[in-house]
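Handout, section 4.2: multi-component inputs.
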Amino acid sequence: MHCCILKMGFENDVFVGASLINLYSRFRGLDSAYKVFVEMPVRDVGSWNAMISGFCQNGNAAEALDVLNKMKGEGLKMDKVTVSSILPVCAQSNDVVSGLLIHLYVIKHGLEEDVFVSNALINMYSKLGRLQDSQRVFYYMKVKDLVSWNSIIAAYEQNDVPTTALGLFKEMQFVGIRPDLLTVVSLASILGQLSDETVSRSVHGFVMRHEWLEKDVVIGNALVNMYAKLGAMDCASTVFEHLPLRDIISWNTLITGYAQNGLASEAIDAFNKMEQCENIIPNQGTWVSILPAYSHLGALQQGTKIHGRLIKNSLYLDVFVATCLIDMYGKCGWLDDAMSLFYEIPRETSVPWNAIISSLGIHGHGEQALQLFKDMLAEGVNADHITFISLLSACSHSASNRLLEVDSDNVGYYVLLSNMYANVGKWEGVTKVRSLARDRGLSKTPGWSSVVVGSIVEVFYTGNQTHPKCIEIYDELRVLTAKMKSIGYVPDYSFVLQDVEEDEKEQILTSHSERLAIAFGIISTPPGSPIRIFKNLRVCGDCHNATKYISRITERDIVVRDSNRFHHFKDGICSCGDYW
DNA sequence: TTAGGGTTAG
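Output:
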């Protein structure tokens, strides 16, 4: 075709050039596309954009950025298409600085009005884990299309905030936008995360009625994953067996499902079956799915065989794969091998440290585990909650005081430990850590919230029962909670750290200081007027979610200033993007 | 010439 174009004398036409670049980068390879690009006698912004998006769509982030820099070098300015093409590259290469600079450029040149540009910004921020920025872009968009909604729903789903993602899905339907296949892929993942079996089944039915399984392998994989997350492996495997299309991710999803539901033998059977399929090549995801199954069964021989295979392609140096190997050697009793592998791989994140600390713990080497924890901090690696769980189990013989000796003045560790105990229902642990913190003079500040009504500032402490309008306040909260529940609010009891029954947990959440202040604001000011709250600590996560519902039900703007930031709640959405 | 999706360790 290129020859025909040359014969017909169209080679100088920039539109033809851009189309050729586009066509070649999709079907013929980037080399051919780049050849057309460099041989073009005249290039306009469109030609550069075609080349940038060509590199980007094929995952060549570095080359895409290189072309962009050359384009700038020739004095050409980015337009809305350039920006939309380059933003996914920033996400791919985890380049926050470039992403922010391009966003500034967008604002300076008024490009945020373009729906492609804004959608690309939502997606980039989401992939960089900056949910708050995604939310802000979405919030200020004047025109939102299906892609905008899919992007913001996927953003919350992928950053593990499924409740908000589901709320946005409902809102999308409320404003009259019909879901497409990509919406349902996110929805399946949301329902798996929320363990909602009833709605999950109806989503499965919806997909079947639309015959989407024949259309795209991704939706089938999403359904297998959804059932696996619900613990319904019989349904997951039935869906898998009937998939018209299967790729490596379908297999990985099935294997992971079995392994994570404690069915290690079934995971290994599935892996062996997969090995029989000629066109399926295992990838990193396969190894991190199957290795834990071998660890679980103590199947060292099969595990070392996999290690051998991985040495040939250097995949054993991948931090996730290596962590699985460390864990396997640790669990199978080969601590020396676990240690030597640990010192061979990159250790910038907590992931491999957690695995080796946990391995040392299994073998009763509490002291050595503690030493590694110190080394980890000395190397500037941040500990996370898994580190503490690993350390706690490692130090179980010597149950956690030793852990607090490392940094005994850091009140955060006490709160973290106490929350960890609370989450697993070990209330005696909670009491012990709290009294330890109290003994050391590290008490937690009591939370209070204030609200201004007229010229008077009212202050509420959590659980206040003495305010003159106490009865009205709690009545208002009861009515609000019922309305909130009718439109999807589910109380999140993980924010209640007391060992009490569920109805009591709900009462505790309802009597948080910020909620009392909001309720007082509602009953004391004219309908529709804004409410301003100040909280001395960070606002509780469940109260944050509840306030979104309250802003929608009461049609009021609610501004909460907490110790961390401003939250502006309006029509069911918070300006902070739920990432505070 | 432009934007969106599925699996994964501790």
